[in-house]
Amino acid sequence: MLRTNLATRPFYNERLAMLLVGLLGVAIILFTLFNIVQLATLSGRDVTLRKQAADDDTRAADLRRRAEQARLSVNREQLAKTAAAAHEANGLIDRRTFSWTDLFNRFEDTLPPGVRITGVQPRRDAQQRFVVTIDVVAREVDEVDAFMEALEQRGGFRDVLARSEQVDEEGLVATEVSGVYLPAAVPAGEGQP
Length: 193
What we know:
By secondary structure, the chain is of the alpha+beta class.
């Protein structure tokens, strides 16, 4: 079966066809106008952003130049002297804030009867913690071990280790013990060496 339209007028409703073609034309014109407006707006933004980027590049180059001049003008010797003075001031502050009374009270609370302290030396390590080295003398190694355990358990120390151990001519065990000291809050007026 063959279906063809042999009519001289294929559309019976020309008004509807013309209306649809007209609406399509108006839509195309509106879409084109919208695109032209967007193109103009984005082109204006592009020009503004390019100008701002160029200004930023110029400013960054100027700041790099100033930073290089500042680097070259720094007196290395003066900087080293200032760093040494700051280090010395920090050492003085550390010595002032270190409470010897608190430390010796902790020793008194933890020292077994057979152990004697012959030397104490506090210092700051790389992590700015107080590391205290304690020279002790005892009759037996077990007494030194008891002292070390007591320091960690209730004496405000951690990581307590025996660094060296020697037996002297009297048969006493001389041990160098060190550990990280956790000082309590320093009361006012204390802490002076």
